Amino acid sequence: MSTALAMLAAVLLDRLLGEPRRGHPLVAFGRMAGWIEQHLYADRRMHGLLAWSLAVVTCVVLLAVMQRHAPAWLAWCMAVIVLYAALGLRSLGEHAQPVAHALAAGELDEARKAVGRMVSRNTAPLDAGQVAAAAMESVLENGNDAVFGALFWFAILGAPGALLYRLANTLDAMWGYRTPRYERFGWAAARIDDVLNFMPARLTAFTYALCGHFEGAMRCWHTQAPQWDSPNAGPVMAAGAGALRVRLGGAAPYDGVWEARPELGEGATPDADAIHRALQLLQRGVVLWLAIAGLLGLAVQGGMHA
User: Fold this and answer.
1) Which end of the chain is more exposed for a tag (fewer CB within 10 A), N or C?
2) SS3 at position 257
3) Angstrom distance (rounded) from CA 241 to CA 222
């Protein structure tokens, strides 16, 4: 039951405080990873794996040792703080809502600027529907990366699991690119992130289905997700789009070139209201996960006292 309570406490902290404005631990980790890359970089997979291990395993083992030797109440508090730092639920809303508000007010240029803070593509040539789609794709995909993935690994391995997942996700964002510099060095970061996300991504997709239009979500998941490049983002975004009955994906501009992408979902072109509905879908999913965690905790506790 302590795991479920810790999950609830961390989600409430995220809702009340949001991400730390100063001294975010992931920023410090990013600097450390940059230092490791600077000193260990070589165009070889083994060097990338060594750098990944030095950055992630060291932190995870240190946390596990600290928790093991701390009093139970302190270990629980540490777990709550680590999970809180790994979550980004409120942050997703803080980034997506300005896009929706600008679109609703007819301020397309402002909406483009706001969505540019969420995605890596060029936003200047996007029309209103494409701006809304970009924001929704970010919300749905990061629902897995910044929320459900962290909750899953916390439930499985406690605070070390949540830390392992979040740091691996961070290194994938830093090193997991298919560029000449990172094709080999970043291979381990990209593959490990894929492995750690395999189960959470599918649970996230199923959560979207349960909390939205179930038949549409499952249909889009099974027919459209295999066409997407990412084995984990595909199920998440296809199911999310189907659950919300909107169309996402399609061509998008990167580095001045429009790249073809498969279409996801079905139904209407997204708008400001659809962005709000995506955030609500994510919030309903979190409530569902917390309820399930609480029920499982009560069941285990009841079994121990039987």
Assistant:
1) C
2) strand
3) 13
| Tens digits of residue pLDDT in 28-52 | 999 999 999 999 999 999 999 999 9
How many Å separate Cα 31 from the centre of its chain?
A: 21
User: Full-prediction pTM beyond 0.85?
Assistant: yes
Burial of 42-70, coded b for 16+ CB within 10 Å and e otherwise, reads: eeeeebbbebbeebbeebbeebbeebeee
CA distance 292 to 159: 19
- What radius of gyration, in Å, describes the C-alpha atoms of the chain? 20
> What is the mean predicted confidence (pLDDT) over 77-103?
96
pLDDT band at 300 (very low <50, low <70, confident <90, very high): confident
Spell out the residues 6+ positions from residue 93 whose beta carbon is closer than 8 angstroms to its own. Answer: 279
Report the residue count for the chain. Answer: 306
d(CA 49, CA 162): 20
Q: Which residue in the block uniquely carries the two structure tokens 């409530």? A: 287
Out of 14-23, 273-282, 297-306, which region has the weakest mean confidence (pLDDT)? 297-306
Which sequence spans correspond to the domains of the chain? 2-305
